[in-house]
TrEMBL record:
The keyword Calcium does not apply. It comes from Guyparkeria halophila. Keywords: Membrane, Transmembrane, Transmembrane helix. The chain crosses the membrane at residues 26-47, 59-79, 91-115, 127-148, 160-180, 186-208. This is DUF1109 domain-containing protein. InterPro entries: NrsF.
Length: 214
């Protein structure tokens, strides 16, 4: 086909992107990144040996619920910002702020009932020095695959799009990491899990203008 014919064909609108291509691309990227993140967690860290017993503790489900709500927010933002001309809207910011606010309130309530020496333990736990780093590490394959998916979706607000990919990736990584993490206090989760999610979110915002332009 000659160049002039191709231009005419595109101008006529006869080349359409299948409706299911974009969600399929994002689903494929998410599945690949999640499998890689799980494999990385299993290879480096392993699942906590007392997981069945830990699942009986309500705080375990607080961790799961916190990560899950952030995943929903990140997915909605990624889906909307990945397409040109689509505004972010109000829902993703509200779904991001709500779980963070609720967790902070729970953490403050826990700290207010503890002695000064107990507060340090509640905040630092035993793994404070590695928690955020490990969440960010587990988010790396997810961020790479999500940015790949978004590049094919033709985003226009590149910094926000990259940040949403980072939020989605970091939240999924936090969910994966929770299967290993022994920490079960609200102050610890409110501080270090949130920092772990913030790292890939910030990295995504930095990478967005560099990798998502088209």
């Amino acid at each position: 086909m000659k160049t002039d014919e191709l231009v005419s064909l595109l101008a006529a609108g006869e080349v359409a992107v299948p409706r299911r291509m974009l969600p399929s691309r994002l689903a494929l990227a998410t599945a690949a990144g999640l499998l890689a993140s799980i494999a990385l967690m299993l290879g480096l860290l392993g699942i906590r040996s007392d997981l069945p017993q830990a699942a009986m503790d309500p705080m375990f489900w607080v961790k799961i619920g916190f990560a899950g709500l952030l995943i929903v927010a990140g997915l909605l933002a990624t889906w909307r910002l990945g397409r040109p001309g689509i505004k972010l809207g109000r829902l993703p910011p509200s779904t991001t702020a709500l779980p963070v606010l609720l967790l902070w309130l729970l953490a403050l309530a826990s700290l207010s009932q503890a002695t000064p020496s107990q507060r340090v333990t509640l905040l630092l736990g035993e793994t404070w020095s590695s928690c955020a780093f490990l969440i960010a590490l587990l988010a790396a394959p997810l961020l790479a695959s999500t940015l790949w998916a978004m590049r094919g979706m033709a985003p226009t607000r590149l910094r926000l799009a990259g940040a949403s990919a980072g939020l989605f990736s970091g939240s999924l990584a936090a969910l994966v990491y929770s299967l290993h993490c022994p920490e079960m206090t609200a102050p610890f989760i409110a501080l270090w899990y949130l920092l772990g999610v913030a790292i890939p979110t910030t990295l995504g915002a930095w990478l967005g203008p560099r990798l998502l332009h088209w």
